[in-house]
């Protein structure tokens, strides 16, 4: 029996096939995706990503000020995003500046906010 496919808005990262055009993901891909979502499922890291999406590049101190946190706490969270390849950084003297290098995460964050707002409106 064929599964009927719904038509959803096509939002893709450049150079990547749409979700509908991809083969069904296997267990390894699902586990990898779950790991990514686990890293993103943190309110501090989500706020950092939003701040970086708005500013392009920020230092640890700038992010700490924006989030009302201590620089060390911010630095620890940034490390997790760097380890996943979501953020990149550069050093300038004693300052470290972070930027989003995986632009797909901006689309994901934008769609997540849209989904949360839509779900809130349906309650």
What is the CATH superfamily classification of the domain at 39-122?
Winged helix-like DNA-binding domain superfamily/Winged helix DNA-binding domain
- What is the CATH C-level name of the domain at 39-122? Mainly Alpha
CATH architecture of the domain at 39-122: Orthogonal Bundle
* Mean of residue pLDDT values: 89
Distance between the termini: 34 Å
The count of β-strands is 3
Cross-sheet strand order for the largest sheet: 1-3-2
Using the CA coordinates, give the radius of gyration.
Answer: 17 Å
Helix-residue proportion: 40-55%
Q: How would you sum up this structure, described in words?
A:
By secondary structure, the protein is of the alpha+beta class. It has a domain at 39-122: Winged helix-like DNA-binding domain superfamily/Winged helix DNA-binding domain (Arc Repressor Mutant, subunit A), CATH 1.10.10. The chain has helices at residues 27-40, 43-55, 60-67, 71-83, 104-122, and strands at residues 57-59, 87-92, 95-100. It has a 3-stranded antiparallel sheet. Helix 3 packs across helix 4. The longest helix is centred in the last third of the chain and has 19 residues, at 104-122. It is globular, with a radius of gyration of 17 Å. The termini are far apart.
């Amino acid at each position: 029996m064929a599964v009927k496919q719904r038509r959803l808005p096509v939002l893709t990262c450049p150079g990547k096939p749409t979700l509908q055009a991809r083969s069904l993901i296997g267990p390894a891909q699902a586990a990898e995706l779950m790991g990514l979502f686990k890293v993103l499922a943190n309110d501090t890291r989500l706020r950092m990503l939003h701040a970086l999406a708005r500013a392009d590049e920020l230092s640890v101190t700038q992010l700490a000020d924006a989030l009302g946190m201590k620089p060390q706490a911010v630095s620890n969270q940034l490390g997790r995003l760097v380890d996943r390849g979501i953020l990149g950084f550069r050093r300038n003297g004693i300052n470290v500046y972070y930027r989003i290098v995986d632009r797909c995460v901006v689309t994901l964050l934008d769609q997540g906010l849209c989904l949360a707002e839509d779900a809130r409106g349906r309650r």
